[in-house]
Design a protein that fits this description.
The chain has 375 residues and is α/β, with parallel strands linked by helices. The protein contains eleven helices and 18 strands. The strands form four sheets. A six-stranded mixed beta sheet has the order 4-3-2-5-7-6, sandwiched between helices. A five-stranded antiparallel beta sheet has the order 9-12-16-15-18, with no helix packed on it. Strands 13-10-11-17-14 form a five-stranded antiparallel beta sheet. This is GTP-binding protein YqeH. It holds the Pfam family MMR_HSR1.
């Protein structure tokens, strides 16, 4: 935990009111040491908004984030919930509905650029709608978008104009889902940043939100990204994050497997085909993760001998930092269209109508589940 500057009489940002700290750039309230001499004294996030029309992401843990969410239900707000299509179940805010009350929610599904160009987007939209229903999330509207490719953002801005009325706009999401890119686009389109950043805060709020003034006196409220520990993006080291999170469109890898065969995804996860007729499995993971096939009977020894070398990423040093593997077994019904989803790593689509018994080994705490196939 960082000590705030000035101990008990902590120095606060004159932009958003957060306690200032000089140690960790990714956490709320960060200010470079040399910037403490400037007037006004504002945190790096406020500085970037004010001077560059650009917000940067900060993160808080689940408990802090839930405190922030708890305030939205009592506001007159439009909520933009941004999720990562590559890690949909891992980045969706579970229970959001009970926090936002009757306020309308726009679901912005980011990173559609990662799916193959031949994707049927109507089917993807239907899939998202079904997932929202299963998770109890009511949405005013859904937009498929790509922050990286600037796709779908005009549609999203139209939705904001349609549903905002006299409301403030709260933007919520997990870390690494593209939230700051969305905030920056909203700032460019809606905010007159010749105004000073607001120094007033809503009564009772914690001081981890940044209120960005809009031309009509309302605000875009930039909330910190929530850290969900069940995602690979929160578990791997910074050097391995680039390998785990794909930057380019996914190239599905199809493997014809007999029962008793195993696929290793680097040293990050393992997939066992335990029982069933010969069938194909399609892997949707980052192109920088090497997939190795072996016999199930050799899988334990292969990992013990080659994790961090032949099986990589991560390297041997970072393999040692991962929690022990937990085994998740699934029985796939005949005729079902099923993905085995591994949060932050991707998913494996079962292609056969024959049914199968499979297992996934992943570090303890990583979310592994089955779902209706996305593609």
């Amino acid at each position: 935990m960082n000590d705030p500057i000035g101990g008990q009489d902590a120095m606060r940002c004159s932009g958003c009111g957060i306690e200032l700290q000089t140690e960790q750039q990714e956490l709320p309230g960060y200010i470079p040491q040399k910037a403490l001499e400037r007037e006004p004294v504002i945190c790096q996030r406020c500085f970037r908004i004010k001077n560059y029309n650009e917000a940067s992401s900060v993160a808080v843990d689940q408990d802090e984030f839930l405190k922030l969410l708890g305030q939205i239900g009592g506001k007159n707000a439009l909520v933009i919930h941004i999720v990562d299509l590559f890690d949909f179940e891992g980045s969706l805010i579970s229970g959001l509905q009970r926090f936002v009350g009757n306020n309308p929610v726009i679901l912005a599904v980011n990173k559609i650029d990662l799916l193959p160009k031949v994707t049927n987007w109507n089917k993807v939209l239907n899939w998202v709608q079904k997932q929202c229903k299963e998770h109890g999330l009511k949405t005013q509207d859904i937009v498929l978008c790509s922050a990286k490719k600037n796709q779908g953002f005009d549609r999203l801005l139209e939705m904001v104009s349609t549903y905002r009325g006299d409301r403030d706009v709260y933007v919520v999401g997990a870390t690494n889902v593209g939230k700051s890119t969305l905030i920056n686009r909203l700032i460019r389109d809606y905010s007159d940043l010749e105004q000073e950043l607001t120094t007033s805060r809503y009564p009772g709020t914690t001081l981890d939100m940044v209120n960005i003034p809009l031309d009509d006196g309302k605000f875009i409220i930039d909330t910190p990204g929530i850290v969900y520990p069940w995602r690979y993006s929160e578990m791997v080291t910074r050097e391995d994050l680039g390998a785990v999170m794909p930057e380019n469109p996914l190239k599905p890898m199809v493997y014809q497997l007999n029962e008793g065969q195993t696929l290793f995804f680097g040293a990050l996860a393992r997939f066992d085909f335990i029982q069933g007729e010969r069938q194909s499995f399609t892997c949707f993971t980052s192109g920088r993760i090497e997939i190795h096939r072996t016999k199930l009977e050799r899988a334990d020894s292969l990992y013990a001998e080659h994790a961090g070398e032949l099986l990589s990423p991560p390297n041997k040093e970072n393999v040692a930092k991962l929690p022990e593997f937990t085994r998740h077994e699934f029985s796939i019904k005949k005729g079902s269209h099923t993905d085995i989803f591994i949060s932050g790593l991707g998913w494996i689509k079962v292609n056969s109508d024959q049914g199968a018994i499979v297992a996934v080994h992943a570090p303890r705490g990583i979310r592994v589940l089955t779902r209706t196939s996305l593609i």
